[in-house]
Amino acid sequence: KLFEFLDEPGRQRMMDLAQRQVFPAGTRVVAEGEPGDSFFVILRGSVKVSVDDFGQEKQVATLGPGSFFGEIAVITAQPRSASVTAAAELELLRFDKVPVLDVLKAYPRVKELLAKMGVRRSEDTLEKMMDLGQERVLGIEAGLNLLHRRHSLEKPRWWPPARWAPSPRSSRNSMPCG
Ligand code: CMP
Known about the structure:
By secondary structure, the chain is of the alpha+beta class. The protein is built from 7 helices and 8 strands, in the order H-E-E-E-E-E-E-H-E-E-H-H-H-H-H.
């Protein structure tokens, strides 16, 4: 689907970079915490996306043919945010970071799309990791700060919620009275 946002020359350039790889079920293709210099498109089979949750492996997603993964490390230069394991025999296209980013210079919309998808997935992972106990320890604000620092993004415009902003009364009080 990502390729739909490229024109024909762009698609051709990407296909020239693609390396086809086949892995048996159970192969860990990407390991959480490791540096990442490629991203992948699934041609056949499926993968399990999981994160280490205080020593316990927690599955956060399953991805199948047509989906991609590994974009977060490629776009943000951060370590892999999750582990990705072949759930069945897996056929992938692998794209190396440096040449891909070079192609995407000409397609900023596609790069933006990848970045947005990465943020959405990170938020999703964080939500799934945050059961009530951890939520209390970490705090939603701390979690969001972490997330947005990780992706060097501004905080979303809806944060903090308006009802947490200083009330009109207190701001009136701090205004000079004229
Ligand atoms: P990256 O951090 O490079 O390596 C692990 C990949 O797993 C990550 O990029 C995403 O592509 C993918 N990933 C992480 N969290 C999720 C999620 N919640 N849903 C789907 N894919 C995810």
